[in-house]
Write a sequence for this structure.
């Protein structure tokens, strides 16, 4: 995926999230949950776009003794 597409999607998501936070009246706790869900979804999408998601998903914590 070209870098310009990633940047454009991040800009659009950021603007839409800002518009929702600014102009849509809702409880603060719901806005916080919405922001966290969108940020996590965008982070996963960016990792997938750059091919790093499989490395993150397959990461195993070593056992301690």
């Amino acid at each position: 995926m070209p870098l310009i597409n990633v940047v454009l999607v991040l800009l659009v998501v950021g603007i839409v999230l800002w518009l929702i936070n600014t102009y849509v009246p809702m409880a603060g706790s719901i806005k916080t949950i919405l922001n966290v869900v969108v940020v996590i979804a965008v982070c996963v999408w960016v990792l997938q776009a750059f091919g790093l998601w499989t490395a993150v998903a397959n990461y195993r914590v070593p056992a301690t003794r």
Notes: Residues 3-56 form one domain. The mean pLDDT is 91. The chain has one domain: 3-56. Residues 11 and 35 are 15 Å apart (CA to CA).
